[in-house]
Design goal:
Number of domains of chain A: 2
Distance between the termini of chain A: 44 Å
CATH class of the largest domain in chain A: Alpha Beta
Structural class of chain A: alpha/beta
CATH topology of the largest domain in chain A: Aspartate Aminotransferase, domain 2
CATH architecture of the largest domain in chain A: 3-Layer(aba) Sandwich
Largest interface: A-B, 91 and 91 residues
Shape of chain A: globular
Number of strands of chain A: 15
Largest sheet of chain A: 7 strands, mixed
Mean pLDDT of chain A: 94
Radius of gyration of chain A: 21 Å
Strand content of chain A: 5-15%
Strand order of the largest sheet of chain A: 2-10-9-8-7-3-4
Oligomer: homodimer
Chain lengths: 393, 393
């Protein structure tokens, strides 16, 4: 019996803690090799550059860094982010809203657009923390059938016609959880449908810069006509460092004002210290060179994991080889239930995330998400050996 | 005509941008003396201590500071905050949820407890950014008649009986906007009513440590039986620095889990850099000595403003002399409308916040909030001279 005088809001009846976060709480243990989190390898952080950036900020403009500031974000940070985004899509500083990481951006977009009961269309499977954020705003999540290239255009058109969604949420580059990327031709088909039906897009692109192979594909927001009906989300977490909690939204028109008012209500402004430190880093360090270092390390790890898995997976099981990002996706097929198997894997000393929480509906229980970025190839090999033991491959 | 394809959520129909934030955007001008914001004097920040704290964190544990972390907050920060809170109320580290400033804490508490249409009881007048945060969760705000000592106990009991509120929101110490403090005897009466009716309390205490005169009054949360039905909110913003965006909630039981899940959805965790820097500051610097320096400066400024106002205010106007905090409250009385007068004041080179936005209902349009902490006594004198000219005193 709950004897507390607090009566929790109904929105917490259906919103569960993130299974990924809950698994991460377990896998802090030293004896477990974790493929579970989307955790960058801290060895690759530019620690000296960030130390220098914070030092410069705190020694040269402490009074500003420690003070209140505007809700939209520090001007020089927005200028630098806009310049970087403009490589893909012309962007001005006043089209940028700084957020405390991608997660806050997803939450703000949901809050700005979703009334309780409104439909948001998502990929199948999709990023589960986005589902959590939209659900708290009252969204009803509807999955659009998807293949290895993302949402199926005909299915998207049908779902828009049936549900009149408030927006469509897509992660076109190296999607979380599957690692898949939507090719340019599919992006054009999707844009056509969104433009024709005037359906807004929340395009989430935390991983796009982490490409190992092939050619970059322009964001859907950059296709003709799409910029005005897209909120494009980026983050420092995967390309610089998650601990500073800096993300940014790019949008145009009225929605920007709603995002800013939401940001006021949620936290006034992102930490000024971190905003200025990230700006200092962007202005004085070579982010592209850092990304090149990170992607060449991650490429080797991806190959170690994909090749290692292909050597041990039983017949009928499938694993993809993503062209970038942090995750790959395994479908074991048949009656295997990866959630049921997780305790055995943890006992064997290896962690992953079962695939089911990433489905807004009808999960494939034989799937799992593995991250290849946190561990070296040697550790990946040992982790896969443990995984094979746990599953009896 | 709005030609955007974005259809904003209805929660943004009634939720307006904060008038304080909008005034602050104007008063960035060098030629305006601002009494408007609750902006600490940056000259009083312990810039060297914070520079040293960030330097220690980034040079000694960068890999941790730049990485993802747990949602509840860094353990050593929670330990240090719990130890400090325990001076007033026994608190353990696991009863602390770190937030990105007070504002996020208010938002999380509203989201955890409020279903659309639920009533939240507030003081008359009350802190307007709290109203904004609760409104986004769907709250209906109901004002409880209040006097110079806070809410009137009989009126509180009647409002609880009539509205069955999800919680009561109070700022018992040096309230924003009025600067008033609830005496111990009133706190006991309020606690009796809350306990008898099993009504939860959100006790917001960002200013309590900034006491200039008189004896500290224990938080309502510390009265017998109240800890279990109170969420107690504190912040680094007013006693250390707002730019780091670090606040903390103290709670017990189920509500802690809802606050943590909400925090996950809103932003995963507060900036790890700032959490560790604040922890380093608390462990290695003398916060009490800093607070003593700040309060002795603020005391002089409060007196400069109160005495200066009393010398110029017309007959019938009232100003209080708060025992601490950042704000005082002026009631001009009669037909004066301080919102209408604001453009004249800005033209004369002085800014304040009109009182009306702080009322959830039936505003007294003759009121204004003045902050005495941002400016030196000399600047305060000049600002009051401009105010007198603008109002024709």
């Amino acid at each position: 019996m709950n004897t507390s005088s607090f009566r929790l809001a109904n929105r917490f009846v259906d919103v569960k803690s993130s299974p990924v976060r809950d698994i991460l709480a377990v896998v802090g243990r030293e004896d477990i090799i974790s493929f579970a989190g989307g955790i960058p390898d801290a060895e690759l952080f530019e620690a000296a550059d960030f130390a220098a950036a914070f030092d410069a900020v705190l020694s040269q403009q402490a009074a500003r860094a420690l003070q209140y500031a505007t809700t939209q974000g520090e001007p020089e940070l927005r200028e630098l982010l806009a310049a970087r985004l403009s490589r893909q899509l012309p962007t001005t500083a006043d089209q940028i809203q700084v957020t405390s990481g991608s997660q806050e951006g997803l939450f703000l977009a949901g809050m700005a657009l979703v009334d309780p009961g409104d439909v948001v269309l998502v990929e199948q499977p999709t990023y589960l923390a986005a589902v959590q954020a939209f659900s708290l705003a009252g969204a009803r999540l509807v999955s659009v059938p998807s293949d290895d290239h993302g949402v199926l255009p005909e299915a998207l058109a049908a779902a828009i016609a049936e549900h009149a969604p408030k927006f469509v949420y897509l992660v076109p580059n190296f999607q979380n959880p599957t690692g898949r990327t939507m090719p340019a031709s599919r992006r054009e088909q999707v844009a056509d449908i969104l433009l024709r039906t005037r359906t807004p897009l929340l395009e989430d692109d935390p991983y796009g810069a982490l490409r190992f192979d092939g050619e970059p594909v322009p964001p859907i927001a950059s296709l003709p006509g799409m910029a005005a009906q897209t909120v494009l989300q980026n983050s420092a977490s995967k390309i610089m460092a998650p601990g500073v909690r800096i993300g940014w939204l790019r949008a145009e028109g009225d929605i920007l004002r709603a995002l800013e008012i939401g940001k006021q209500a949620v936290g006034l402004q992102s930490a000024v210290t971190d905003q200025l430190a990230v700006a200092h880093y962007l202005a004085n360090c070579d982010l592209d060179a850092h990304i090149a270092r990170v992607t060449s390390a991650y490429r080797v790890r991806r190959d170690a994991m994909v090749d290692g898995l292909r050597a041990v997976l039983p017949a009928g099981a499938e694993v993809n080889r993503p062209e970038g990002g942090m995750f790959l996706w395994v479908r074991l097929g048949g009656a295997v239930d990866t959630a049921e198997a997780l305790p055995r894997a943890l006992a064997a000393g290896v962690a992953y995330v079962p695939g089911w929480p990433f489905y807004a509906a009808e999960p494939d229980h034989s799937t799992m998400r593995l991250s290849y970025v946190t561990n070296t190839p040697e550790v990946i090999a040992e982790g896969l050996a443990r995984l094979a033991r746990a599953f009896g491959w």
